[in-house]
Design a protein that fits this description.
Largest sheet: 8 strands, antiparallel
Number of domains: 2
Low-confidence stretches: 1-21, 324-339
Distance between the termini: 91 Å
CATH architecture of the largest domain: Beta Barrel
CATH class of the largest domain: Mainly Beta
Structural class: alpha+beta
Radius of gyration: 27 Å
Order of helices and strands: HEEHEEEHEEEEEEEEEEHEEHEEHEEHE
Number of strands: 22
CATH topology of the largest domain: Thrombin, subunit H
């Protein structure tokens, strides 16, 4: 190659590639360096905290064991708020601390099955919005809890979604719960769990492993309870009256209880469940999830395979017989949210 050819080009290193330019030409301007990802995440967490804080409150009251304190958050501009059942479910003399003001709170719904309570204060309030859709936040997605630990001010806790669990220590939840690797302290029971858009994805119900993580009722379940409370004055959980079993990879009806909605619909033992309402059934726990979202008195379609043919039956869920067990079928009190509750000694 001639000297002229060599002098007419020059190799310039640009990033990890080689850019060949005419001699004397200027290289293109470098792209701006990407923002530090840690700094960007910090900004997002701070934004979520500052936006949520005005709508998160401390709740104090008195129950049979003495004074207690926890967290809650407003869900509409008219003073309706969500909290944990352990905070607002059975306590009296409930007071909500909003900024520098205190408001007496009235209990409008206490649902032991889901583990939440709805309270009301007479005030115009800031509020948080729930995430839209039925999907739970994905595993490893970032989340922020905002609550009032001990006697401290509103405090953010940051972490990630660790799983979607239907049972813990061998006991089943009333519906799938979010397990979040978010450190929580006493007093944060009833606090909202938010995604990085500032939308509520759930309500803190109880701690795991000495406060290093927590179980969270999905906001979709809490909204079901709230909607029923508005319409009927209580949660109005529906009951079908059947038991199921897993057989050869399918979910079969094991027993149809006498005088139950299942019996009245013509459901039979041995029917293979395909769907309850809009929820597909692939394992027995799916029936738990589907049943939680039923409302007593409202018909629901149940699809089954019988003798090789798909059939659709209409069931009308009834009120559950007897009083339902406290949140998630009989966990010890230490699991039902005690560590998230503050009591005066």
């Amino acid at each position: 190659m001639s000297r002229r050819s060599l002098s007419s080009i020059a190799a310039r290193v640009c990033g990890v590639g080689i850019l060949v330019l005419p001699l004397g030409a200027e290289p293109p301007a470098a792209s701006p360096a990407p923002a530090n990802s840690v700094d960007a995440l910090q900004v997002e967490v701070q934004r979520v905290f500052e936006q949520a804080r005005p709508a998160v409150v401390r709740i104090v009251g008195v129950d049979v064991h003495g004074p207690l304190s926890g967290s809650g958050f407003f869900v509409d501009p008219n003073g309706t708020l969500l909290t944990a059942y352990t905070i607002g479910g059975e306590a009296n003399e409930l007071t909500v601390e909003l900024g520098n003001r205190k408001y007496p709170a009235r209990r409008i719904c206490a649902d032991a099955r889901s583990g939440i309570a709805l309270l009301k204060v007479e005030a115009q309030t800031p509020f948080l919005t729930p995430v839209q859709g039925d999907a739970l936040p994905g595993v490893a997605s970032a989340v922020v809890a905002v609550g009032y630990p001990v006697d401290l001010d509103a405090t953010p806790s940051f972490g990630i979604v660790a799983g979607h669990d239907r049972k813990y220590l061998g006991r089943f939840f009333s519906t799938t719960h979010i397990r979040a690797n978010v450190p929580v302290q006493r007093g944060q029971g009833g606090a909202p769990l938010l995604n990085l858009k500032g939308e509520v994805v759930g309500v803190l119900i109880s701690t795991v492993d000495n406060g290093t993580a927590c179980f969270v009722l999905p906001i979709q379940a809490a909204e079901k309870v709230r909607a029923n409370s508005v319409r009927f004055g209580d949660a109005r959980h529906g009951w079908l009256g059947l038991t199921v079993e897993s057989v050869a990879g399918s979910v079969r009806v094991a027993q149809v209880l006498p005088k139950s909605p299942a019996e009245g619909s013509g459901l039979r033992s041995g029917d293979v469940l395909q769907a309850v309402g809009k929820r597909a059934v692939q394992n027995p726990e799916d029936v738990l999830d589907a049943s939680f979202f039923l409302t007593s008195g409202e018909p629901v379609e149940v699809q089954v395979m019988r003798d090789g043919a798909l059939q659709t039956l209409t069931l009308v869920p009834a009120d559950p017989p007897g009083k339902p067990a406290l949140h998630a079928a009989g966990e010890p009190a230490s699991f039902r949210g005690g560590p998230l509750l503050i009591r005066s000694e």
